[in-house]
Amino acid sequence: MAEKSGRNKSIEELTAEITQSRERVARDLRGLQYELDLPAKFRRSFREQTVSWLSAAAAVGAVIALAPMRKKKIYVDAKGGRKSQKKLVETGLALGVLKIAANLVRPVIVEFVKNRLTDFGGRSRRKT
User: Fold this and answer.
1) If you ran DSSP here, which 8-state letter would residue 3 be given?
2) Residues 6 or more apart from 9 whose CB is under 8 A from it?
3) What is this structure's pTM?
4) Is it the case that residue 42 has pLDDT exceeding 90?
5) Helix or strand or coil: residue 75?
6) Which residues have a Cβ under 8 Å from the Cβ of 53 and sit 6 or more positions away?
7) Cβ atoms of residues 6 and 14 within 8 Å
8) d(CA 40, CA 34)
9) Cβ proximity of 36 and 29 under 8 Å
10) Which pLDDT value is given to residue 68?
11) What's the longest Cα–Cα distance across the chain?
C-alpha cells in the first residue's frame, strides 16, 4: 500500500531521516567521483599491473613500426617509360641550350646596366 504521511512522526525522527538521506547521497556522490576519476584509475592500474601495460605498449609499438613494411605492388607501363625518358632528354637539352644562351648574353646585359647606371649618375651630378 501507499506509505504513510510523515506528519505523525516526531521532529527528531524527521531530522534523523534527513541526516541519513544526506549521508546516503554523500556516499553515493563519493562513489561516483571514485568511478569517474579515470586518470587515478589508470595510475593505479599501471602500478598494480606494470608488466602488462609495458608489454601491451611494446606490442602496439611493434605493430605501428612494422605496419608500413608491407610491399606495395606498382604496375608500370613499358610504353610510358619510353615517353618519360624522351621527355627527360628533351628537357635536359632545353636546359643546356638555355645555360649556354645565358652565358653568351650575360656580358651584354652587364654592359647595358653599367652604361645606364653611369648615365644616370652623370646626370644627377650635372644638375647639382
Assistant:
1) P
2) 17
3) 0.34
4) no
5) coil
6) 45, 46
7) yes
8) 9
9) no
10) 72
11) 120
pLDDT at 98: 92
- For the chain, what are the domain ranges? 10-74, 76-128
Q: Which three cell numbers stand for residue 82?
A: 619510353
CA angle 74, 79, 82 (to 5 degrees): 100
Question: CA-CA distance, 66 to 64, in Å (whole number)?
Answer: 6
CA of residue 58 relative to chain centroid, distance: 22
Residue matched to cell numbers 506509505: 3
- Please determine, for residue 35, whether its predicted confidence score (pLDDT) is greater than 60: yes
Answer whether 4's CB lies under 8 Å from 13's CB.
Answer: no
Q: Per the structure block, which three cell numbers stand in for 91?
A: 628537357
pLDDT tens across 4-13, in order? 655 677 899 9
For the chain, give the number of residues: 128
The Cα–Cα gap between 65 and 59 comes to 10
